[in-house]
Amino acid sequence: MNMIYRRLGSSGLQVSALSLGAWVTFGKQIGDPTARQLMHAAYDAGVNFFDNAEAYADGQAELTMGRILRDAGWRRSSYLVSSKVFFGAEGDRPNETGLSRKHVVDACHAALRRLRVDYLDLYFCHRPDPAVPVAETARAMHDLIVQGKVLYWGTSEWSAAQITAAHAACARLGLHPPVMEQPQYNLFHRARVEREYAPLYRRFGMGTTIWSPLASGLLTGKYNRGVPKESRLGFSGLEWLRKAILSGNIDRRLAAVRKLAAVAADLDTTLPRLGLAWCLKNPRVSTVILGASKVAQLTENLGALEVVDRLTPAVLARIDRISRPVAE
């Protein structure tokens, strides 16, 4: 199936419905050769958005992506690249983290160098910073846009109230407002996107670039019998992620995964494709960010585009009955 493109909220920017992210893979779990294969396979399939952040592998993920973009020879107009600012990349001294004007600007310049591009298509505030006035951060983002170093700015994992406050500051000061939010969204983590953000879509036309659509692999079924060593949750250095995913009501969620596998079988598809297609079915989702460590895995996930139309109201209701009782 050909790639589908969606507008980023109410903006004019077209983003591929499926995109590729560098979190916990580039510069950490995989080397440059595999990362290059993944980016080229994605680009050849019509993916036009590659997501990154200063904090991913302490800047190494952006360095890896930058080397690939330098060598690929793709027209700059044919792809979108992002960075995120908050956690820092090179240290934790004062002003090397957070959302102060200094760090927002310094981090942008550093991301441009690492990614080897002249501008960032999307620039996210990776988390809210209660220590910095939102107007200061918004002004810094506005100035970067005016300078041509950033095209669109947005937030990641901000509350609806915090996003609303940012829009109010921008309206009051005549600044470019945030256009998009990057929240976690999947069958087990859905309340914020579906309920908390509901007023934002209507009021501000916010777009979403969602992450962890398969709950870090939980919704693929790979953890039904434990944690394979070659999996993301079995990777050294990601113990914190393993603890976060495999805690709480994990037994009930694994039971739900097994029931979802039956739904996937009835639709003649796979669990990963079912989970991704479910995310794509939400019209508020601008793009679903995929993570992959193998080309075969990426190819499998790209096939979710073929499943979207199979998710009829009856199928969605069946999925909802299984997943909602164990969802956040």
N-C termini distance = 32 Å
* Total beta strands: 10
Strand order of the largest sheet: 3-4-5-6-7-8-9-10
The structural class is: alpha/beta
CATH class: Alpha Beta
Mean pLDDT level? 94
CATH topology (level 3) name: TIM Barrel
Overall outline: globular
Q: Tally the structural domains.
A: 1
Helix content, binned percent: 40-55%
Query: What ranges have pLDDT less than 50 throughout 5 or more consecutive residues?
Result: none
The appropriate CATH architecture is Alpha-Beta Barrel
Instruction: Report the β-strand fraction as a percent range.
Output: 5-15%
Order of helices and strands: EEEHEHEHEHEHEHHEHHHEHH
Largest sheet: 8 strands, parallel, barrel
Whole-angstrom Rg: 19 Å
What is the fourth-level CATH superfamily? NADP-dependent oxidoreductase domain
Task: Give a quick set of tags describing it.
TIM Barrel; two-stranded antiparallel ribbon; 41% helix; 12% strand; alpha/beta; 328 residues
Short description, anyone?
By secondary structure, the protein is α/β, with parallel strands linked by helices. It has one domain: Alpha-Beta Barrel (TIM Barrel). 41% of the residues lie in helices and 12% in strands.
Question: Your description of this structure?
Answer:
- By secondary structure, the protein is α/β, with parallel strands linked by helices.
- The protein contains twelve helices and ten strands.
- It has helices spanning 32-44, 60-72, 101-115, 134-146, 160-173, 191-196, 198-204, 239-245, 250-266, 271-281, 295-302, 313-323; strands spanning 5-7, 14-16, 18-21, 49-51, 80-85, 120-125, 150-155, 180-181, 207-210, 287-290.
